Amino acid sequence: MNVQDRRRLLGPAAAKPMAFSNAIIDEQQKKPVNMPSKDSENGDELSLHTGFIENCNGSALVEARNLRHQTSLITAVYGPRSIRGSFTSQGTISIQLKNGLLEKYNTNELKEVSGFLMGIFNSVVNLSRYPKSGIDIFVYLTYDKNLQSEAPAGESQSKKTFSEISYLIPHCITSITLALADAGIEIVDMAGAGEANGTVVSFIKNGEEIVGVWKDEGNNEDLLESVDDCKEQYRRYRDLMISCLLEQKSLDTSSS
Amino acid sequence: MAENTALETIEVHPITFPPDVLARISPELSLQRHLSLGIRPCLRRYEEFRDITIENNTLSRYVEKDSVDAKNNILGSNILKSGKTVVITSITGGIIEENSASIKDLDDFGEDELYEVTKEEDEIANYASIYPVVEVERGRVGACTDEEMTISQKLYDSVLHSRILPKKALKVKAGVRSVNEDGTFSVLYPDELENDALNETNLKMKRKWSYVLYAKIIVLSRTGPVFDLCWNSLMYALQNVKLPKAFIDERASDLRMTIRTRGRSATIRETYEILCDQTKSLPLMISSQNIAFAANYGVIELDPESQLQNPDNAQEEVDIDMDKSQCILIADLDTEAEEISIHSTISVIASSAGRYKQLTLVGAGAKITPEMIKRSLLLSKVRANDLSARVKK
Fold first, then answer.
1. Do B152 and A9 touch (CB under 8 A)?
2. Strand order, beta sheet including A209-215
3. What is the DSSP letter of A30?
4. Rounded to 5°, angle at Cα B302 from B296 and B303
5. Can you tell me the distance from the alpha carbon of B210 to that of B269, in angstroms, rounded to the nearest whole number?
6. Any chain B CB within 8 A of the CB of A153?
7. What are the backbone dihedrals phi and psi of residue B87, each rounded to the nearest 5 degrees, phi first?
8. How far apart, in whole angstroms, are the C-alpha atoms of residue A221 and residue A209?
9. Residue A147: closest CA among chain B residues belongs to which residue?
10. Model confidence over B166-216: pLDDT tens digits?
C-alpha cells in the first residue's frame, strides 16, 4: 500500500494485507473440481463479444477456459484521436495492460507484454492511414484463475517452469484484434497467436507471416514444433474471430 | 430586412438536422424536444429507472462451495450492469492490530474532527467504513480524476454514517495454531470451542486485531453519473463478504521481552504474523436493516419555446403561456444530454423499510419544490424495495 498517495482512500497505513496460511488443504480437496470436459490440452473454450463499452471506439471481451486456466479480458480501443505536438506522418499506438481485480502480475511483467503487443500491432495496424493521431488500447485482465494449482504439487512444479503470463498473450492479441475491428480501424490482416511450451508465435495472412515471437524459458528444443502448434491454434482463433465479427455485423444490420 | 432588400435578396432557409445530429450539436434542445413529447432521449419515461442485472460473488475466493481458490484474495464481489454501464466491485481485506491508542488514529480521515462533532453521543465511533478506490475507465492514464476522488470519499462517508458496518463485526476472533505431538498443525478457534474452561486457558490473548476492508470499484462504459451505481454495487458486494478466520502461532500468543536501551528498560512486544485460514470463513455481520440503495433525480424546467407542436392542433395556434414554466422530476439520470443540461439534482439513499440514510440537494437551475423532494423520497423507497429483492435470487 502506498501511503504517499493522498488522492485515494487507501486505509490505515498500519494495516497489513491478509496473508493466507500455506495451503494445508486436505488431500481429497485437491481433486479437480468443475473441470472442463475436454481431454486435449489445447481444447480451449472461447467466448468472444464485441462492442459493449459505450464510451470508447471499439471494445471486446474474451473469455477463455481450458484445463489450465480460466481467463477473462476486456479490451477497449480509444481512437484514432488527435495528438498534441508536432505533425507525425503515422499514427502511434499505445497499449496498456491493467491488472483488473486480481493483483496477480507485477507491473514489469505487464509492461514487457504490452511492449511485445505494441510491436505486433505496429506492424498489423495500417498506421500510415492515421497521421497525427494516436490509438490508445487498454486491456483489463478482469479475471484470471490458474486451475492447475489444484493438481498435485510436485507435478505443477515441474510444469510451471515458464511464466503463466505467456498463456494470456494469445488471448490479448485476439481481443485487441477484435476491438480494433470493432473500432473500424484499418488493419492489414486479422492478427492471432497460439501458445505452446511457453512460446507464443503471432501470425497474419493465414500463418504465412510471423509478426511476433515471445519466448519464455521452457522447452527450447522443439521450437519448430511449437511454431506448428501455435499456427494451428492461430487458425482456430482466427476462424472464431471472423465468425464472431460476422455475427455481430448481421445483428447490427438486422437491428437497424 | 429593409436594408437587405435594397442590396440583394437573401433567402434564409431554415436548417433542419436529423435527430442524432441535433443531439450532438445541441444536447439541451434535443433534450427539451424529447421531454415535450413525454419521453427522454434514452426513451425512458420521466420517472423510469434503468433495470439492473447483478452477479454476486463470482470473482471471490469462496465462489465454489466446497473448495476455495487459494491464490484469490477477494472476499466478496459484485458485477452490476445498468443500461450500458458496468460496475465491477471487489472487496479485499487486511488486518490491523489494535492498541489502546488505535481507536483514535485508526481512521485518519477527518477522524479528529469527527471526534469533536460526536463527543456527546459517540454513536458513530462504533461503526467502521470501507476504503473504496473508484476507477472510472475513460481511456486515459495518469492520476485519478476529481470525479473518482469525490465518489470514493462520498462512498466512504456514506458507509460510515449509514451505520452499516459495526466495528464489532470486524473484530478478529483469532485462533491459535499449535503443533501436535506428531508434528501436524491444528488450529483452535475461540468460537469453535464448547468447553469454556479450555477457552479460558488457551486463548487468553491481550492483543486485539480487526479486519480492514478495501473495495476496488471499476466503472466501464460510463454514460452518466455513476455514484449511485457504485453505491448499489458496493451494497451488494458487502452483503456477500466472507471474512476468513485468522490465527497466530501458539508460542507467539503472549510474547514479551524486556530490553534495555540507554539504561532504561522497556518492554517490547513482539509483532508477529497473523495468518488467515485458507478454508474456514465466517460471513461478515453487517447490520442488514441499514442496507440502503441509492437513486438520483434531476429537476429540469420545460422550455416552452422548444416544445414540439402537436400536429393535431397546430392550425389552431395553441396559446402557450411563454412566461409560465413547468418543472419536472427526472429519475436515474443517464446520457450526456441529461448530465450536462440538468443542474438541479436530488440524490437519496434509502432502505426498503423506509429508513433514509442520505439526502443531497443541489439547486443550480430549476427550482426544487417540496413536492419533488417528497416524490423522490417515495420513489427511492420503491426503488430500494425493488433492488433489495434482487439479493435473494
1. yes
2. A192-196, A199-204, A209-215
3. G
4. 140
5. 18
6. no
7. -115, 125
8. 22
9. B69
10. 988 998 888 887 777 777 777 777 776 655 545 544 555 667 888 999 999
Helices (H), ranges, chain A: 107-124, 153-159, 165-183, 223-255
Q: Pick from B208, B233, B57: which is nearest to B130 by CA?
A: B233
Residue B62 at interface with chain A, using a CB cutoff of 8 Å: no
Listed by start position, the domains of chain B span: 28-49+294-310+323-391, 173-205+246-279
Q: What are all long-range contacts of B351-355, with beta carbons under 8 Å and residues at least 24 apart? A: B351/B289, B351/B290, B351/B291, B351/B292, B351/B293, B351/B384, B351/B388, B352/B293, B352/B381, B352/B384, B352/B385, B352/B387, B352/B388, B352/B389, B353/B289, B354/B381, B355/B289, B355/B290, B355/B292
The predicted model scores a pTM of: 0.84
Question: Which residues lie closer than 8 Å to A85 by C-beta, 6 or more apart?
Answer: none
What single-letter DSSP state applies at residue A34?
Answer: S
Instruction: Tell me whether 0.85 is exceeded by the ipTM.
Output: no
Q: What stretch of H or E contains B286?
A: none
Contact predicate A66/A47, CB 8 Å: no
What is the least distance, in Å, from the CA of B220 to any CA of chain A?
7
Beta bridge partners of A138: A76, A96
Residue B196 backbone dihedrals phi, psi, to 5 degrees: -70, -35
Cα B73 to Cα B60, B68, B238, distances in angstroms: 7, 10, 15
Give CA–CA dist B307/B321, Å, rounded. 12
Kind of pairing, strands A209-215 and A199-204?
Answer: antiparallel
Distance (Å, whole) CA B190 – CA B202: 9
Residue B77 sits at the chain A interface (C-beta within 8 Å) = yes
Angle at B212 between CA B167 and CA B151, to 5 degrees: 95
Beta carbons of A29 and B67 less than 8 angstroms apart: yes
Ramachandran category for residue B363: left, alpha or beta (phi over 0 → left; psi -120 to 50 → alpha): beta
A215 φ, ψ to 5°? -125, 120
Give the CATH H-level superfamily of domain A35-255: GHMP Kinase, N-terminal domain (3.30.230.70)
DSSP string, A58-107: EEEEEEEE-SSEEEEEEEEEEEEEE-SSS--SS-EEEEEEE--SS--S-H
Are A229 and A41 in contact by the 8 Å Cβ rule? The answer is: no
Nearest to B139 among A56, A74, A104 (CB): A56
Q: Is B157 helix (H, G, I), strand (E, B) or coil?
A: helix
Give helix A165-183 / helix A107-124 axis angle, nearest 10°: 40
- Tell me the pLDDT tens digit for each residue of A21-64: 765 544 444 444 444 444 445 567 888 988 888 888 999 999 98
In angstroms, rounded to a whole number, what is the distance separating the alpha carbons of residues B128 and B113?
A: 16
